[in-house]
């Protein structure tokens, strides 16, 4: 049991240090987070300075908007997959790991799928909804944030990757 105000301050400080700071938007430094893969391994979602840019989509199997965005994500991955890391963060709302695993096995998804059971990535990136996309440049700075089926992922990546 923790007693006194020092104990509560220590708990608050420990929680604050354990959780990555939430990204506010374009121009912010992208938080580095670790999220579980579907087989339980921890996957780092982070840009190592000077390496690859990154696309993150927050999605769910039941999200119709995510399904409508899928062709645009596939086109972007086809064009920039060698230069950009693509992550699909399953938000786990009304989703079991088994359901997501079956969905991934049935569909050709254009990203590395992670299962954000604790909501770490959702909170770190302030993801307000599914179909929320964040593009981070190779230096770790957020260059695009958007939601919805009509996002021009390929066009936004062209601005970040330079062609």
Please characterize this protein's 3D structure:
This protein is α/β, with parallel strands linked by helices and 163 residues long. It contains five helices and seven strands, in the order H-E-E-E-H-E-H-E-H-E-E-H. The chain has helices spanning 4-18, 64-80, 97-106, 120-124, 153-161; strands at 33-37, 42-45, 53-59, 84-90, 112-115, 132-136, 142-146. It has a seven-stranded mixed beta sheet with strand order 2-1-5-4-3-6-7. Helix 2 (64-80) runs parallel beside helix 5.
Write the layout of secondary structure elements.
Layout: H1 4-18, E1 33-37, E2 42-45, E3 53-59, H2 64-80, E4 84-90, H3 97-106, E5 112-115, H4 120-124, E6 132-136, E7 142-146, H5 153-161
Parallel strand pairs: 3-4, 4-5
Antiparallel strand pairs: 1-2, 1-5, 3-6, 6-7
* Approximate strand percentage: 15-25%
Distance between the termini: 58 Å
- Overall pLDDT score: 86
Number of strands: 7
Low-confidence stretches: 1-19
Biggest sheet: strands, sense, closure? 7 strands, mixed
Q: Give the CA-based shape.
A: globular
Quickly give the structural class: alpha/beta
Task: Tell me roughly what share of residues is in helical segments.
Answer: 25-40%
Which series of helices and strands comes N to C? HEEEHEHEHEEH
Using the CA coordinates, give the radius of gyration: 17 Å
Count of alpha and pi helical runs: 5
Strand order of the largest sheet: 2-1-5-4-3-6-7
């Amino acid at each position: 049991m923790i007693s006194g105000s020092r104990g509560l301050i220590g708990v608050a400080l420990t929680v604050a240090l354990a959780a990555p700071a939430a990204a506010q938007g374009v121009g912010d430094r992208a938080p580095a987070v670790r999220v579980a893969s579907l087989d339980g391994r921890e996957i780092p979602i982070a840009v190592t300075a000077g390496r690859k840019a990154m696309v993150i989509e927050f999605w769910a199997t039941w999200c119709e908007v995510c399904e409508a965005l899928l062709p645009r994500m596939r086109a972007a991955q086809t064009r920039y997959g060698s230069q950009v890391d693509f992550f699909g963060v399953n938000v786990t709302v009304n989703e079991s790991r088994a359901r997501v695993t079956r969905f991934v096995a049935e569909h050709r998804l254009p990203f590395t799928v992670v299962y954000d059971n604790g909501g770490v990535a959702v909170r770190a990136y302030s993801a307000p909804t599914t179909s929320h996309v964040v593009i981070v440049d190779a230096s770790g700075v957020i260059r695009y944030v958007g939601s919805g089926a009509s996002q021009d992922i390929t066009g936004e990546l062209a601005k970040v990757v330079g062609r």
